[in-house]
């Protein structure tokens, strides 16, 4: 019997699962180190997830079509008494039914045997994005043909359902597998850099070297997530850790709650006066390094914290004046942010009516910006989190939080 049209019969699912995991690990090891360090982790995870997920086909049953043709059928193997020499072909007029079953998904999956299977898998020819089921006979009738089609479709559905369960386990893990591998290799690359630096020789500078590490100078419980600065000439750019960024936002949030509880005390204040109250609160929690750098504002930059001459947090205070004003503020923040993982915030004060409409307009406006990448969700009803790409390099990201507050006159 010819097994070339047997489906789900070439390779077992376990081998596919192990093969995909190995491919992920192998490719992670071949990515150029500087490219890995200078790329967004989430973007790399998107790449691995898209490339290595197993896309189990879905049958498009509403698109099945059937065709029929006359054909010559060899009946020499049939138990027919009037054929004396069964060693030679004997053809009779018959009918060939061709059933085309379209599907969406990876055609290679039809070669894979699921972890649960039978000893009698379905038969069909895989042709591009369709399965071709051939039924031939000298005396076919509609009931017989429909029964065979239904039986074959039922088997195919069952096998695909089993494969979907198998693939789900792998697909759900790919992003975390990639992320763990990326983060592990990034740590090793940075550790190797510091190893070379600690030898006491001059470190050869490379123009494409990575540019980030977590700043250790903010006072409140900072735990560096990357190695401390080396003694070598090259030093990565500092960034603010997630925990300290979240704490800064909580200080801003708490200050606005004071304003909301005592609106008359702040009703006549302009942007600059309101900003000063934020600075007082922030400087009560944080202090700068030996150079005396601390939260301050310079020029049109409202609130910032600096490390070694670099801005690691920027906040802009604005009264709501429509979506265009918010877009202009986003452009302003992007202009300030020249390196990866900058943490920024827009603090919006509303002195108009219909605050709920403003809350609806904020996500629409932010997501329409050309540098918008991902939605991080809301931490509170008026707290919106996003990831933006740097204008000069989409792999360089910044975390943007929009805080909106109703401060009536």
End-to-end Cα distance, whole Å, is 87 Å
The count of domains is: 2
Spatially, the strands of the biggest sheet line up as 10-11-12-13-16-15-14
Mean pLDDT: 77
In helices, the fraction of residues equals 25-40%
Order of helices and strands: EHHHEEEEEEHEEHHHEEEHEHEEE
Number of strands: 16
- What does the overall shape look like? elongated
- Can you tell me the residue ranges where pLDDT is under 50 for at least 5 consecutive residues? 200-206, 208-235, 288-299
DSSP summary: helix tally: 9
Share of β-strand residues: 25-35%
Biggest β-sheet description: 7 strands, mixed
Give Rg in angstroms.
Answer: 32 Å
Q: Briefly note the structural class of the backbone.
A: alpha/beta
Describe the structure.
Helix content is 39%, strand content 26%. The protein is of the alpha/beta class. The strands form four sheets. Strands 10-11-12-13-16-15-14 form a seven-stranded mixed beta sheet, sandwiched between helices. Strands 2, 3, 4, 6 and 7 form a five-stranded antiparallel beta sheet that branches. A two-stranded parallel sheet has the order 1-5. Residues 200-206, 208-235 and 288-299 have low confidence and may be disordered.
Summarize the structure.
The protein is of the alpha/beta class and 409 residues long. It contains 9 helices and 16 strands.
SSE topology:
Blueprint: E1 11-12, H1 13-30, H2 33-38, H3 41-52, E2 58-59, E3 65-74, E4 91-104, E5 112-113, E6 125-127, E7 130-137, H4 142-197, E8 212-214, E9 237-239, H5 242-261, H6 263-266, H7 271-285, E10 296-298, E11 301-307, E12 310-319, H8 323-336, E13 342-350, H9 355-367, E14 372-380, E15 383-390, E16 393-406
Parallel strand pairs: 1-5, 8-9, 12-13, 13-16
Antiparallel strand pairs: 2-4, 3-4, 4-7, 6-7, 10-11, 11-12, 14-15, 15-16
Helix pairs in contact: 1-4, 3-4, 5-7, 8-9
